[in-house]
Specification:
Layout (H helix, E strand, L loop, with lengths): L2 H11 E9 L2 E6 L3 E6 L13 E7 L2 E7 H4 L12 E8 L6 E8 L1 E9 L18 E7 L2 E6 L1 H4 L3 H13 L2
Parallel strand pairs: 2-10, 5-7
Antiparallel strand pairs: 1-2, 1-8, 3-6, 4-5, 6-7, 9-10
């Protein structure tokens, strides 16, 4: 196999991923799920919402729920500071549905990096203090371990119910 062919195969398995920090841990997710990244605007609290939902924001007329990703993953709470940002995620709940938006409050957005999907490894078997379904596995970027976010599972449960209720209210 010549070197050009090997290089082409490596490029085909390489995907662009957004790298971000929650507490002292790096996470990645495929850029196809990222709508935009913004500084945290004014949050509006939502009564009786799940503990990890810090509120909603208004972005260009869209009301978007924002989750504290650290709380969702039982890693504590994000202390909002100068580096704190909101990654606006997009996801379809089902094939016939429109894109739904969800804000991920993170400590810091680091970079966009190439990730070889073949090098993502399953989490080692042990008891984690977070819902392991939220993470697809681990890999390294520049020598640092990163956890790969499973965006579909972030949208399930309480968030999916809230987005469905929001859709019902907007259709009335």
């Amino acid at each position: 196999m010549n070197s050009d062919h090997k290089e082409n195969m490596a490029m085909e398995s390489s995907e662009k991923h957004l790298v971000f920090r929650i507490k002292d841990q790096l996470f990645t997710l495929h850029v196809v799920h990222v709508n935009t990244i913004i500084q945290l605007p004014r949050l509006f609290k939502v009564p009786q919402s799940p503990e990890f939902i810090v509120g909603v924001i208004n972005v260009e007329g869209d009301v978007i729920p924002v989750i504290d990703t650290a709380k969702k993953m039982t890693m504590g709470e994000i202390e909002v500071g100068g580096q704190s940002q909101v990654i606006i995620m997009q996801h379809r709940l089902d094939a016939s549905d429109k894109m739904h938006l969800l804000g991920f409050l993170v400590d810091e957005v680091c970079e966009v990096s190439d990730v070889d999907a073949r090098k993502i490894q399953a989490l080692p078997t042990s008891k984690y203090e977070f819902d392991e379904r939220l993470v697809d596995g681990m890999h390294k970027i520049e020598g640092e371990f990163c956890m790969q976010i499973n965006i579909a599972n972030f949208f399930k449960g309480d968030i999916e119910d809230m987005l469905e209720n929001q859709k019902t209210l907007t259709n009335k």
